[in-house]
Each structure stands twice: as structure tokens, then as C-alpha cells.
Amino acid sequence: MDYVISPAMMEWITVLSLILLGISLVVIEIVFVPGTTVVGLIGFGLSIFGVILSFRYFGTTIGSTTATGTALASGVILYLTFKSNVWGRFASKATMAGRVNEEELRDLTEGAEGITVSALRPIGKAELNGKVYEVKTFGGYMETGSRIKVIRILSHQVIVEQIN
Q1: Centroid of chain to Cα 11
Q2: Rg (Cα) of the chain, in Å, rounded?
Q3: How confident is the model at residue 98 (pLDDT cuts 50, 70, 90)?
Q4: Each residue of 3-60: pLDDT tens digit?
Q5: Are 34 and 54 in contact (CB under 8 A)?
Q6: Quick check: 120 and 145 in contact, CB under 8 A?
Q7: What's the rounded Cα separation, in Å, for the pair 95 and 88?
Q8: Helix (H) or strand (E) holding 64
Q9: Burial 39-70, CB ≥16 within 10 A → b, else e
Q10: Residue 99 in 3-state DSSP?
Q11: Full-prediction pTM beyond 0.85?
């Protein structure tokens, strides 16, 4: 017994495959690779292309029904994706409790002088009073080995300026 797929059946398979692949790519974009937008745009484009083909192959009535069904299916699938919090299982729940320069700033005072041990662009490392701290400028860049002076200490930030 030979199975022969009719041209009409092949057209339906093409349209449904494009739409389902498109919706799947949009869901993958949202859940697994958020922020890239390429996967989502390709998925959206494939769904639209599938709907356009349904208009071309089957006419206005079936094309409109396919477009409506695609929009409803997409809405329901996206709603269920967001409601089920699928991405919550993949998200890291760990937090970082440490802070930069924590507990180390007690010995440091405004006016202290030192030298940069890395380039400040505008954040980097500097040696002040024999210890290495993460320091910050008000936007200026400094090369390694520049002489600096502490001009302000805010919470866990050490603001410096270059000494000429």
C-alpha cells in the first residue's frame, strides 16, 4: 500500500509547520534566550509567513481563520508560558552578599595619596597606604602608575583624582 500525500495536504503541512515553528521560536526567545531578539524575530516572521501562505493556498476565508487561530494560539501559549513561571526554574537564586572595599575603608582617609596599579577607566585598582583598593574617578581616565589622591569616600566607593 503506497501512501501518497496530496498537494493540498502538503500545503497544510507547510502552513502548520511554519506557524508552529514560529510560535515555538518566540517561546524559546522568551524563556531560554531573552534579550537576543533574533530568535523571536525569526519565529514571528515564520508565523506571519505561514499565515500569508494560508491566504495564498486556501483563499481569504481559510486564511482569515488561520490568522485568527494563530493569534489566539500565540496568545494562549504566551500566557501559559508567563503564568507557569517556566524561566524561574532556570534562574539563579544565589545572591552575592559581599561588597567592594567592605570593612577595608576604616584605615583610609580623604587626602591619602597612592599610585594606580591598573588603568582607571574610570574604575580600577590603586594602592593606598600599603593596601589595594578599588577606586573611581569622576570620569577621567588614568594609566597604570599614575599618582593619585583620595578626594572623597562614599559608602563603599573611593573617589580619587590624579596628582600632577
Answers
A1: 37
A2: 30
A3: low
A4: 788 888 999 999 999 999 999 999 888 877 777 789 999 999 999 999 999 999 999 9
A5: no
A6: no
A7: 15
A8: helix 60-83
A9: bbeebbebbeebbebbbebbeeeebeebbeeb
A10: coil
A11: no
Instruction: For residue 58, give the 3-state DSSP assignment.
Output: helix
With cell 507547510, the residue in question is: 14
**For residues 79 and 91, what is the distance between their CA atoms, to the nearest angstrom?**
19
Residue pair 103/87 in contact by the 8 Å Cβ criterion = no
Return the higher-pLDDT residue of 131 and 105. Answer: 131
What residue ranges in 67-130 does DSSP mark as E strands?
113-116, 123-128
Residue with cell 508552529: 20
3-state secondary structure at position 29? helix
Distance of CA 15 to the CA centre of its chain: 31
Q: How far is CA 83 from CA 22, 64, 77, 80, 109, in A?
A: 20, 28, 10, 5, 52
Q: For residue 130, give the C-alpha cell.
A: 600599603
Grid cell 580619587 in the structure block, residue? 160
Cell numbers at 36, concatenated: 537576543
Asked if 25 and 40 count as a contact pair (C-beta separation under 8 A), the reply is yes
